[in-house]
Design goal:
Layout lengths: L1 E5 L9 E4 L9 E10 L2 H8 L10 E2 L3 E9 L11 E4 L29 E5 L3 E3 L6 H4 L2 H13 L9 E5 L3 H12 L3 E6 L2 H9 L4 E4 L6 H8 L5 E6 L6 H6 L1 E9 L12 H5 L3 E5 L5 H14 L5 E6 L3 H9 L6 E5 L2
Parallel strand pairs: 9-10, 9-12, 10-11, 12-13, 13-14, 15-16
Antiparallel strand pairs: 1-2, 1-4, 3-5, 3-7, 3-16, 5-6, 6-8
Helix pairs in contact: 3-4
Length: about 325
């Protein structure tokens, strides 16, 4: 079998493919034939040395992947041979509140999914919706669950509320789709008229080009008759947080998903003091949230947005393409 390895700060140039003997699952473990894997911003952060959680040396890369269970170890009860599954990013976080005791994560302190065969603890395994392809299912564990948690982890939107999603990254696209499932109005921001049109086709009710309207929070207020939005999915961190808070209605929520290294890191204390909102930092989500999200996807027939699919043999090119920042939807790597 083959797998791709990297490490904290090694860069894309430091990714190497290695050959291994076929692994065997131990007690409470399953062996998955991985059919597809996908990229997230966390992978670029790991390779750039900017990731905050532990990363083991020479780790098998990628948190996201989907495949078929082909062997089970002794005393496994959560999976059967032939099951179509993905894996929760934090296998030990079953449900409830997050804690540092649950921080072991696939593709970081645990080996990831950019491999032909993966051995994982049965606690990580989550059945995928039947209507999804392998490539679509591989997009769910990180970006999908993060968006689901950001929207519903504290208080889910109710029909008629308004959700603001920033940009057109994968978390924002998932959040847009989920917000529409909840019956919410969606306002999106983006950097170009072309992306604005694509966001409208995905269901956005209003789109703001933040390059032509840099004070986009003012436009958000105008679009909501001065009230503000009920939920914000903030993926920009320090560079956008103040405007997100200024966009939020009384008793609204801001889910802080990302913190981009090239964005300003200061937080405007006046923006915090001037809002009556809940600011919540998101750490992906639990297995229970993954399962709940999959039920919603299955019932609705939703399909994740995929930008491009690269072959396993050309995985490094997928990283370089993703790093360029031009994708709209997930970048996926398909196994042979």
């Amino acid at each position: 079998m083959k797998s791709y390895h990297g490490g904290l700060g090694v860069g894309i140039a430091g990714i190497v493919q290695r050959r291994h003997d076929e692994p065997k699952p131990g007690k409470h473990e399953v062996l998955i034939r991985v059919r597809a894997a996908s990229l997230n911003a966390r992978e670029l952060m790991i390779l750039a040395g900017q990731y905050s959680l532990p990363v083991k040396p020479d780790v098998v890369l990628l948190a996201d992947g989907a495949g078929e269970v082909i062997t089970i170890g002794d005393e496994v009860t959560r999976a059967r041979i032939g099951d179509r599954v993905a894996c929760a990013v934090f296998p030990r976080w079953i449900g409830g509140r997050f804690g540092w005791e649950f921080a072991a994560q696939i593709g970081g302190s645990l080996d990831g999914m950019l491999t032909e065969l993966a051995v994982v603890d049965e606690q990580a395994v989550v059945a995928i919706p039947e209507h999804l392809s392998w490539e679509e299912a591989a997009t769910l564990p990180c970006a999908g669950v993060t968006a689901w948690n950001a929207l519903s982890g504290l208080r889910a939107p109710v029909p008629g509320e308004t959700v603001l999603v920033l940009g057109s990254g994968s978390v924002s696209l998932f959040a847009l789709g989920f917000a529409k499932l909840f019956g919410a109005r969606v306002i999106a921001t983006t950097s170009s008229d072309e992306k604005a049109e694509r966001l409208r086709r995905l269901g956005a009710d209003d789109v703001i080009n933040y390059r032509s309207i840099p004070e986009w929070h003012v436009r958000v207020r105008e679009l909501t008759d001065g009230r503000g939005v009920d939920h914000v999915i903030d993926v920009g961190g320090g560079g956008t947080l103040a405007r997100s808070l200024m966009s939020t209605a009384v008793e609204g929520q801001v889910a802080a998903v990302g913190w981009l290294a090239n964005e300003a890191s200061s937080i405007d204390i006046k923006a915090i003091a001037g809002s009556i909102a809940t600011l919540r930092r998101i750490a992906v989500g639990s297995r229970a949230q993954f399962i709940a999200m999959n039920r919603a996807i299955a019932v609705s027939g939703m399909h994740p947005a995929i930008d491009s699919v690269f072959p396993f043999a050309d995985a490094v090119s997928a990283f370089r393409y993703y790093e360029a920042g031009k994708s709209f939807g997930k970048v996926v790597i398909a196994m042979p």
